[in-house]
């Protein structure tokens, strides 16, 4: 997917953080959880995943579960960005094992 710079700029200009809405000529709109599901493909049903893991262990966990560590996983910030996941895992290698697929 190639982002449309003009569209992104237009949306940024119309975003109102105090109400978490976009102000458009047709009216005010907001992004719903359903929109996030449609765009990201993430599941929203079931229990939330919340864990208490010491900051210094996140790199080891990412390496064990993902096989690599996000470049911006520094300073104890335990965030794996969806953009990074998409870039790193959007294409399977030709010789991917059944476990990987």
UniProtKB/TrEMBL annotation:
Q: Which InterPro entries match?
A: AminoTfrase-like_pln_mobile (IPR019557), MAIN-like (IPR044824)
Positions of transmembrane segments: none
Residue ranges that the Swiss-Prot or TrEMBL entry lists as coiled coil = none
Q: Where is the Aminotransferase-like plant mobile domain?
A: 4-90
> What's a Pfam family this protein contains?
PMD
Give me any GO biological process, just one: meristem maintenance
- Indicate what this protein is called per its UniProt record: Aminotransferase-like plant mobile domain-containing protein
